[in-house]
Design brief:
Blueprint (H helix, E strand, L loop, with lengths): L1 E5 L8 E8 L9 H8 L3 H8 L9 E5 L6 E8 L8 H17 L4 E5 L5 H16 L18 E5 L5 H22 L7 H15 L2 E5 L1 H6 L3 H7 L7 E7 L8 E6 L1 E5 L20 H16 L4 E11 L11 E3 L5 E3 L7 H13 L5 E6 L3 H7 L3 E6 L2 H14 L2 E4 L17 E2 L7 H10 L7 E5 L5 E2 L9 E2 L4 H9 L1
Parallel strand pairs: 1-6, 2-4, 2-5, 5-6, 9-11, 9-14, 10-11, 13-17, 14-18, 15-16
Antiparallel strand pairs: 3-4, 7-8, 8-11, 12-13, 15-18, 19-20
The structure holds ligand BES, manganese (II) ion and zinc ion.
The site of manganese (II) ion (MN) has 4 residues, from loops.
Length: 488
């Protein structure tokens, strides 16, 4: 599917289908809307009169026009209230237009939406179009998308927007890489596959790559990370990919993603009804880290960025950690593993110690860390914790611009009480209450003075069903936030 932006206003456009976004106020059909309605043999006013189209968010109709019309179909998409119109309304309308156009076997689609700031508008629309068009047929033996395909979308009335469109393509490609890594099952994406993906990115984009093998990690004393990987037949891969700009970088940043390619729970095995069959997505942090690397390497900002994942599989075997084992992390701290299913934080502990040593300006980690965060915030909002209000505000601003949601959560020191161990420096699992907060407090033990943000993305990496901008399945969350943060 080709995406273009052209200055042509919607009244002059010709092609298979024209999609237009209307707010409640536009239902009066004055000015250009009246002219459009006229050209469409009043199909639009009729749909409004019958109540089929009411311009509410999520409401849309496909209207078949007369044979003599310059467009065969008119797609009207609801944008809700004019006062609350924002880039997210435009993203959802763009995604819905693509889905309806594909359903209606449209080949060429013109899309006319109100403009906010033009470059940002074009970027948001183009990214949403590309992501809505993405389907994953890698594991189907037959191509189910045979027949008419949507060949081209022309975004109308915003000018050519070359720079915005290429930014959108880079961001969407990174998001799709993350989606495909997350959606692939655990027998297709292993720590070795993640390392191979990093290798491919390094050679495609000229990035530096360091892969630490098990022995290298042993030398660095990464006992927490290696404890998690020790029951698996697949070796751990500690991935460290670096993008360096030409000249002196404006900032040096680190992104650390949890890369547990399958989380069985270990000997504290996940039981029936625990969602164990969905635990291929427990490398969502690593997937988004590599997706962001791809986008950033394409966009070439003047910022040095390190992409890290301590990739491992959390399995059971005769080599498995026993519940109660004591591990020593690479900063010398000892951990009593009172629950082998709290494995993500163990891998992140050593990854954060490694990240801290890079002497960066900021570290952001992202992890499908706790079911508790899903209980707290639901499936569409990630949790955000930070030791630095300024950095937290930066990441929140990036997320708002990217249309991804995070809620800032407390690093409530008093809650560390439940992580205290009688025998080691700490336990890896605290009280059930506030479980996503104690997980964040655990991570904090492995970060020093560097400004740090922890993102719990357990909910939003996966969409049960299509919603607004997301297709069902892996979402690629929060690649767009990460890229926006690095570029800002
Ligand atoms: N990978 C899970 C968290 C998770 C749960 C992600 C559901 C996505 C959906 C994590 O490793 C885990 O098992 N966490 C435990 C922690 C508990 C043992 C303290 C949890 O959330 O139950
Ligand atoms: Mn687990
Ligand atoms: Zn996990």
């Amino acid at each position: 599917m080709q995406i273009e932006a052209i200055e042509t206003p919607c009244l002059d456009w010709t092609g298979d289908a024209l999609a237009v976004g209307l707010t409640h106020a536009d239902l009066e059909l004055t000015g250009d809307w009246a002219a459009l309605d006229e050209r469409c043999d009043r199909a639009l006013s009729e749909a409004i009169a019958t109540g089929e189209f009411d311009a509410k968010t999520g409401n849309a109709v496909v209207l078949r026009l007369g044979r003599t019309s310059a467009v065969r179909k008119l797609i009207a998409v609801g944008l809700g209230d004019r006062d609350t119109l924002d880039l997210n309304s435009l993203r959802a309308a763009s995604a819905s237009s693509v889905r309806l156009a594909k359903n209606a076997k449209v080949k060429t689609l013109g899309l006319s939406l109100p403009s906010l700031e033009t470059a940002a508008t074009a970027q948001a629309i183009a990214t949403a179009l590309r992501l809505a068009d993405h389907t994953d047929n890698r594991f189907k033996s037959e191509d189910e998308t045979k027949g008419v395909t949507l060949e081209a979308v022309q975004i109308l009335g915003l000018g050519e927007q070359t720079a915005a469109l290429s930014r959108a393509e880079a961001i969407a490609a990174g998001t799709i890489l993350a989606r495909e890594l997350v959606a692939a099952p655990a027998n297709a994406v292993t720590p070795e596959t993640l390392a191979a993906t990093a290798q491919q990115l390094a050679s495609d984009y000229g990035l530096q790559l360091e892969i630490l093998e098990r022995e290298d990690c042993e030398k660095l004393g990464m006992g927490a990370y290696l404890g998690v990987s020790q029951a698996s037949d697949i070796p751990p891969k500690f991935i460290h990919l670096t993008y360096k700009p030409e000249g002196t970088p404006r900032r040096k940043l680190v992104i650390v993603g949890k890369g547990v390619t399958f989380d069985s729970g270990g000997l504290n095995i996940k039981g029936a009804g625990s969602g164990i069959e969905t635990m291929k997505m427990d490398m969502g942090g690593a997937g988004a880290t590599l997706g962001a690397a791809r986008a950033i390497a394409t966009l070439q900002p003047d910022v040095e960025v390190h992409f890290i994942s301590a990739a491992a599989e959390n399995m059971i075997s005769g080599h498995a950690m026993h519940p109660g084992d004591i591990l020593t992390a690479s900063n010398g701290k000892t951990i009593e593993v009172n629950n082998t299913d709290a494995e993500g934080r163990l891998t992140l502990a050593d990854a954060l110690v490694f990240a801290e040593k890079l002497g960066a300006d900021a570290i952001v980690d992202l992890a499908t860390l706790t079911g508790a965060c899903i209980v707290a915030l639901g499936n569409n909002i990630g949790g955000l914790w930070s030791n630095n209000d300024h950095l937290a505000a930066e990441v929140q601003a990036a997320a708002a611009a990217a249309g991804e949601k995070f809620w800032t959560m407390p690093l409530e020191e008093a809650y560390f009480e439940s992580l205290k161990s009688p025998i080691a420096d700490m336990k890896n699992t605290g009280a059930r209450a506030g479980g996503s907060i104690t997980a964040a407090l655990f991570l904090k033990q492995f970060v020093g003075e560097t400004p740090w943000v922890h993102l719990d993305i357990a909910g939003p990496v996966w969409a049960e069903k299509e919603d607004g901008v997301n297709n069902a399945g892996a979402t690629g969350f929060p690649v767009q936030t990460l890229v926006q943060w690095v570029l800002a």
